[in-house]
Structures are given as C-alpha cells and as structure tokens.
C-alpha cells in the first residue's frame, strides 16, 4: 500500500511499529528498530521520525516536554501536514503539549496544505499586528504597515542569529520587501501609512478581478486606473484564461495593452495562472502576448489555483523571456507567484 503514495502529496501519514516486524513476517527481536525508516527509503517516501517506546507516554504532562518521546513527536508534527491533525483527540493533545501549533479552528480556509512552520509564521505575523488593542481602524492600518508590510521585516533576534559580527548585522538590517501588496480598496491606506513612516517602499495592488479575471474588460481596466490614481506604483493584473484556452491571442494582447495604458508609469505584472492555461505551448504564447503588450513582469500564478507555480511552467516562461529579449532587446522580469 505504501507504494501507492510514492511521489504524491496525498496528506496520508503511515504509522508503523518501530521493530523489524514492520517489514518481516517473522521477528525474533521485537525491540529492534529501523524497519519503518528502511521501508520509507525503499518506497521513496519521506521518513518523518521515530518515537521511542515509553510506557508513560499516554500520561505525559507538559512538564515532561524534554522527554525523548515528546521531543520526537514535536519534530514529526513540525514536518507533517497540519490538516492531518484535525481529529479532536489529536487537537486536544497538541494544544496541551505543543502550544505553538495553531489549533484547527484558526486555520486559514484558503490554505489547506500548509504545514506547521507555515502556521507558526502566520501566528507570529498575527501576533505582531495584534500585539495591542486597536482603538480605531487607523491604528490597525498603522500596525499593518509597520509590522506586516515589512518596513522592518526581520526581528532583531533573528538578525542576531544570522549575523556573526556588527557589520553583518547592519547589512541585514537593510533587508526589505520589494513592495507592499494590497487589494485596490486598501491602496490609499497603505500609501498614507508608509508616507507617515517616511518609508520608500512602493505599494502594489492586485487588479482586474483578481484572482479569476472573469469580469467585463471595462471594469477591469477601470480597476487598474483606480489603483494607480490612489498611489499604486505596481499593478498585478490577471489575464482572462478563456482567451488562452480558445487561442484568441490577439484579444489577449489587446486586453493587456489597454491595462498597460491604464497603468501609465506604474509597472504592470501579468499573472498567467499557468495551472489553468492547459499546456506548455499555451503558457509560452500567453507569455509572449503579455510581453508584446507591454508587461514589465510575467508571473506564474495567483496562488488561488489548484496548480500554481511549478518548475516546467517556470522554465517555459523563462525561455519565452529569453526569446523576447533576443528579438526586441527588451528585458522583462519573471515572478514566481505562490500564495500560502
């Protein structure tokens, strides 16, 4: 059965006994170990870890966190797919013994495949933004820009852990994100707060009916204009995938061209949603159509599709960028888009 999961991100977790009986019909030493790990290597699936035999494990209290069994389980949980722990009994045990794991009730409904480290990061960002009560919406927006918008994206303890001397620490302090990306209705707020902070970070916005792009062209172009008028210096547009699937490359070019005109001096990033383009040939042609229409960037995905960024699609897009440069001497940037 284990071989059915080879190469698949199925979310299934195989639990086996820690003796060689796991792979043999007869076993003379039931306290041997390593059978599960050997089987995982043979089946080419990840081995998450082994939990030492401990008769007191079921009654283990939080004060016994340093026991080998608890430490091993914490390591396994940190690798395993979080949604596999939705069982009530599992959630109760995790909340009691590993409090840093976010309970299932707080999981983001739009992100079903995140693992524990992702959720720990989400928890840290939430803590940073909500470390104090906000008396009004303006206060909340201020914290959003200062804490989450990466004016100071890396905390001092993390910087210190990477820097070996003062010079490296000062260099790492200069790290920032490329832009603060928000929805169109929040562009004005983000621009205002960043100005108050005297931050040079640009504001980017998604537009054109993100993430589906299934809206009339007039409203999609108007949305681009709205973003720019409110201060966005970058606009992430999503193309109409129906034009790609039906091979209407002229219409696709015309739509992206009108969106580029609405951008004015702002950069336009064209999101292809490669998982919905149908074929590598379509991804290549869509890339070319967008670049010929004036896109400054081409981006793999919104992160909302079933299939998002992947290596084959990225390779096709990079080759399209190379071919476009050879023919026009114009440089276009590639963006890997994945929303966790």
UniProtKB/TrEMBL annotation:
Keyword presence, Lyase: yes
Keyword Zinc: no
CC annotations in GO: cytoplasm
Entry superkingdom: Eukaryota
Xref: InterPro entries: Aldolase_TIM, DeoC, DeoC/FbaB/LacD_aldolase, P-loop_NTPase, RNaseH_sf
EC top class named in words: lyase
Family annotation (Pfam families): DeoC
Entry keyword set: Lyase, Schiff base
EC number from the UniProt entry: 4.1.2.4
Catalysed reactions, as listed in the record: 2-deoxy-D-ribose 5-phosphate = D-glyceraldehyde 3-phosphate + acetaldehyde
Recorded GO MF terms: deoxyribose-phosphate aldolase activity; nucleic acid binding
Alphabetical list of SUPFAM superfamilies matching this protein: Aldolase
Pathway noted in the entry: Carbohydrate degradation; 2-deoxy-D-ribose 1-phosphate degradation; D-glyceraldehyde 3-phosphate and acetaldehyde from 2-deoxy-alpha-D-ribose 1-phosphate: step 2/2
GO biological process: carbohydrate catabolic process; deoxyribonucleotide catabolic process
Family: Belongs to the DeoC/FbaB aldolase family. DeoC type 2 subfamily.
Name listed for the protein in its UniProt record: deoxyribose-phosphate aldolase
Native species: Nezara viridula (Southern green stink bug)
Upper lineage: Eukaryota, Metazoa, Ecdysozoa, Arthropoda, Hexapoda
């Amino acid at each position: 059965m284990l071989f059915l999961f080879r190469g698949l991100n199925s979310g299934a977790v195989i639990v086996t006994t820690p003796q060689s009986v796991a792979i043999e019909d007869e076993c003379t030493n039931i306290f041997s170990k390593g059978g599960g790990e050997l089987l995982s290597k043979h089946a080419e699936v990840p081995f998450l870890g082994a939990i030492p035999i401990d008769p007191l494990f079921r009654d283990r209290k939080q004060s016994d966190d340093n026991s080998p069994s608890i430490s091993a389980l914490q390591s396994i949980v940190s690798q395993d797919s979080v949604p596999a722990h939705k069982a009530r009994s599992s959630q109760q045990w995790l909340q009691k013994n590993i409090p840093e794991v976010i309970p299932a009730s707080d999981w983001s409904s739009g992100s079903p495949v995140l693992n524990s480290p992702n959720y720990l990061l989400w928890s840290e960002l939430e803590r940073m933004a909500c470390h104090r009560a906000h008396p009004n919406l303006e206060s909340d927006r201020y914290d959003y820009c200062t804490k989450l918008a990466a004016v100071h994206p890396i905390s001092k303890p993390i910087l210190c852990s990477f820097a070996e001397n003062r010079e490296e620490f000062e260099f790492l302090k200069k790290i920032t994100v490329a832009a603060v990306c928000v929805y169109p209705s929040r562009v004005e707020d983000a621009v205002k707060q960043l100005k108050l902070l005297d931050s040079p970070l640009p504001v980017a916005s998604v537009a054109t009916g993100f993430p589906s792009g299934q809206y009339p062209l007039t409203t999609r172009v108007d949305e681009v204009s709205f973003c720019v008028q409110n201060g966005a210096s970058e606009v992430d547009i999503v193309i109409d995938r129906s034009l790609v699937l039906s091979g209407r490359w002229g219409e696709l070019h015309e739509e992206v061209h009108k969106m580029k005109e609405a951008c004015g001096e702002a950069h336009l990033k064209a999101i292809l949603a490669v998982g919905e383009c149908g074929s590598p040939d379509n991804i290549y042609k869509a890339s070319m159509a967008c670049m010929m229409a004036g896109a400054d960037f081409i981006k793999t995905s919104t992160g909302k599709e079933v299939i998002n960024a992947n290596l084959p699609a990225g390779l096709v897009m990079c080759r399209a960028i190379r071919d476009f440069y050879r023919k026009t001497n114009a440089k276009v940037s590639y963006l890997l888009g994945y929303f966790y």
